Amino acid sequence: MFWFRQGLCILPVCLVVLHDVDVLLPYISDTANSPPESCFFGLMTFISACTCIATIYAMYKYIAKLGEDKGVAFCNRAALGLGLLSCFGMCVVATFQESAVEDVHLTGALLFFVCGALYISMETYISYCLFPYGSSLLVCRIRLILSVISGVVFLPSILSLQLDPRLAKASAGCEWIVAFSFVSFFLTYIHDFKVSY
Question: Which residues cross the membrane (predicted)?
Fold first, then answer.
């Protein structure tokens, strides 16, 4: 998550200082439209995707062991698949810049955000199913809040841009909120990975 945070926080600040993007809520992809920014963005996003794959798989194995007799095996496998698809979408976004191949880039972004929102919703459901053996009630509630935020904010990010291009700033703001809700959700795994059974 360190690399994802660096890519989401440091790069946009540098780009604003260099006047390469709009100061008020640039799209995440706008930070990677031209070299050298696109190279840095691609590298950070690819490293983040690899880290996410490792974390998603570790959580899958953790839940598989913890929830053997809790009836969450199907949901756990589905969450693993959605998480891996989301990471694939992140790799597509990193590889195909919006200015070069817009349709492929947008397809990757849609895959990343839709599968990511579904992934964290399923993981939240699994957390509640495994309570009190997995996460604490506080962590379950934080996950619920983050999954609701990502689900509620994702739709306006797409619809506002499709309905009225003048709402681009609202759409960009929603995109940033969804991205940070994903990062925050992964941070809730720290508690689970610290607990040993």
Answer: 7-28, 40-60, 72-96, 108-130, 142-161, 167-190
